[in-house]
Amino acid sequence: MRLLCAGVLVALAGICYSSWVLEFLWASPLDPLRSFLSELDAAHRPHRGWYIAGDVTTSICAIGAAALMLVPRPAVGGVAARGAIVALALFGVATITDALSPIECIPHIDADCPEEPSGLLPQLHHIHALTSTVAVFAIFGAMILGVLAAWRTPVWPLLRHWGLAVLVVIAVATVWMLAADDLHGDYRLGLAQRIQVGGMSVWLVLWGVAVATQRRSTTPASGSAR
């Protein structure tokens, strides 16, 4: 029952993390191919409450799932599997902080809004950029460790191929974003980010199913693999 509840929470975190798809339900001056998701819940934007609610719910589900799988004792064995769960908790904490610290305005949309800061460590210029970076690193850590655990131990076999395939798609989208971010021209960065975040949602749902269907034989009593 513990694993079933944890798996449901992980899957719900993935579903709620895709609240950005609601942007297609109402008119907006933001172009999905070029705008970043952080702009959807910028201060004073209409419908921002829906996106914030989605991220907050994602965070609560992620933290709750991690707690269920770690307390009172880890539900899985192995450093990689437990590390993935800890990274999930960190993702939850960073995401709720991110949701509650929106950007104030959108360049080229809101009047008198300055361009994004540049230079050394631009993330330090705004808490939203910093928490977004932490959340992305945390979920990447969870995905990499989760796939590694699936290959090295009997736990979460669904992630061995399906999880790895989704992770590759996310990695390609991330490279797309990083490589094109400082280049001049139209590289559809909004599309790249939506593929990235959409892939993360799919991966979390897959992980949730894997946790919910996890065999009791893969719990710490027999899961000593590293």
Automatic annotation (TrEMBL):
<keyword id="KW-0812">Transmembrane</keyword>
<feature type="transmembrane region" description="Helical">
    <location>
        <begin position="79"/>
        <end position="97"/>
    </location>
</feature>
<feature type="transmembrane region" description="Helical">
    <location>
        <begin position="127"/>
        <end position="150"/>
    </location>
</feature>
<protein>
    <submittedName>
        <fullName>DUF998 domain-containing protein</fullName>
    </submittedName>
</protein>
<keyword id="KW-0472">Membrane</keyword>
<keyword id="KW-1133">Transmembrane helix</keyword>
<dbReference type="InterPro" id="IPR009339">
    <property type="entry name" value="DUF998"/>
</dbReference>
<feature type="transmembrane region" description="Helical">
    <location>
        <begin position="162"/>
        <end position="179"/>
    </location>
</feature>
<feature type="transmembrane region" description="Helical">
    <location>
        <begin position="191"/>
        <end position="212"/>
    </location>
</feature>
<dbReference type="Pfam" id="PF06197">
    <property type="entry name" value="DUF998"/>
</dbReference>
<feature type="transmembrane region" description="Helical">
    <location>
        <begin position="50"/>
        <end position="72"/>
    </location>
</feature>
